[in-house]
């Protein structure tokens, strides 16, 4: 019996996992522009331990047993096929678009070349090693973890973390953010809250220079990291009929993660505005739902007969500040030991190496 075709665009946290889970149930094609998966947030620690980079760049060649991974850039999606920039067309019964988001270097690859990403990471690592002072603009998870990692590995550096918010992680209970602030300060990090930076010189990569805060203070640093959030990669999906983008750049979906008038096209992850944040934790809920739903529709059931997706009411979050210290919110605030065991010590590296068929 001929298996139905599922084409997945994007080999990030959503794409590779959904492809792997459906590999035994459908004729799966995973389309990805890079030759390897790069595992954030371990890219942060790799700036301080360059040997780690080889552990978190994971080739796709062992991911699937029966399906295929095609290296290419998708330029259009219809109800029946995905077209690449080289003209090749991949027919599909069902399509999942999970093109993720872009982030300032060196936390994610900015282009198609993994070698370019390696060079960018090495360049910033060298700049960081030479810097005596570091300013981090943006105190979300990436900025906060970066401050903690630098403080843990290079306690001699002068580190300042700047946030426009009045508290760290204001979407969570005050205890969570307050404890992180105290731990950063104990590690020697200066935390500046409620101050917006008015004059970032660039947004795409770190640089040496100064920043002016709204209160008038000027902060000079040997290395300024602009860490002000992700930009959803929605160019491809916005070509579909009926797509509704929101101010954040993400795309609205119906209750079954469908963004358009096409009933067999789904989206997930950072591009999907479905009530979840742009976090790895979000996809730990989205991926199982998507896999379960697709398995049923591959058997001939209607999408509308499946249970609608229910986003996190408040997603857990894990914020290590180096390998030993950190805080997490797991429906209550927990501290160093649990954060270290769940994320801080190994950053999920063994888990993802195993998923890609690689040794630890």
Automatic annotation (TrEMBL):
Keywords: FAD, Flavoprotein, Oxidoreductase. Pfam families: Pyr_redox, Pyr_redox_2. Residues 71-274 form the FAD/NAD(P)-binding domain. One of its GO terms (cellular component) is cytoplasm. The keyword Membrane does not apply. The keyword Transferase does not apply. Its EC number is 1.6.99.3. One of its GO terms (molecular function) is flavin adenine dinucleotide binding. Residues 5-48 form the Pyridine nucleotide-disulphide oxidoreductase N-terminal domain. PANTHER family: APOPTOSIS-INDUCING FACTOR 1, FERROPTOSIS SUPPRESSOR PROTEIN 1. Belongs to the FAD-dependent oxidoreductase family. This is NADH oxidase. It comes from Ruegeria atlantica. The lineage of its organism: Bacteria, Pseudomonadati, Pseudomonadota, Alphaproteobacteria, Rhodobacterales.
